[in-house]
Design brief:
- The chain has helices at 9-32, 42-49, 63-88, 92-105, 125-146, 150-171.
- By secondary structure, it is mainly α.
- The protein has a domain at 57-171: Cytochrome c/b562 (Four Helix Bundle (Hemerythrin (Met), subunit A), Up-down Bundle), CATH 1.20.120.
- α4 runs antiparallel to α5 (125-146) and α5 runs antiparallel to α6 (150-171).
- The longest helix is centred in the middle third of the chain and has 26 residues, at 63-88.
């Protein structure tokens, strides 16, 4: 009985070096072109912790406007911290309470006249537009929490915090 050529020892010794060479070249080329292995979220994490790039310098607010906003922003920071913790563990009652508080607290009235004696006239119109957006997002977050809608809470919290970031990008002096 005659064995097929791929089983003959003389055939195997002739083919082995060629196969080994082909395998070695293929392996070295495939390894040379691959980027280092990294977590799929690494790029997003890097962007999240990096200092934001401003498209323009912060808009100037007068000293009076900064005084008006300082206490309010400290209160918002506390509310947002508590809200974030509640969102992470889906404490719907706390989410609803904090979001409703933020919606009710975002209530600086637009000036009725251009009179400089009105305290809120120190704030630009863009601030009031962002405040309206904040109030709307906070109400939507409270509604999602009332419905115990986890994905709705996540989306609305993102919208709410996005509004905070837009306002800070416009007005907060670089820190």
């Amino acid at each position: 009985m005659m064995l097929p050529p791929f089983l003959c020892s003389s055939f195997r010794w002739k083919v082995r070096p060629a196969v080994a060479l082909l395998f070695g070249v293929t392996l070295s080329l495939s390894c040379a072109n691959r980027p280092p292995v990294q977590a799929p979220q690494e790029e997003q994490l890097t962007k999240a912790v990096a200092a934001p790039e401003r498209l323009a310098p912060p808009e100037d607010l007068s000293g009076t406007a900064r005084v008006i906003l300082r206490a309010r922003m400290q209160s918002h920071a506390q509310d947002m911290g508590a809200l974030m913790s509640a969102v992470m563990i889906l404490k719907y009652d706390v989410i609803q309470e904090r979001a409703t508080g933020i919606a009710n607290d975002a209530s600086l009235a637009r000036p009725l006249t251009g009179d400089a004696t009105e305290l809120n006239s120190a704030l630009p119109e863009k601030f009031f537009t962002l405040q309206d957006e904040l109030r709307t997002a906070a109400k939507a977050l409270a509604a999602s929490a009332a419905e115990k809608n986890a994905l709705g809470v996540a989306d609305e919290y993102g919208r709410l915090s996005g509004t905070c970031v837009k306002c800070h990008a416009a007005y907060r002096q670089g820190r």
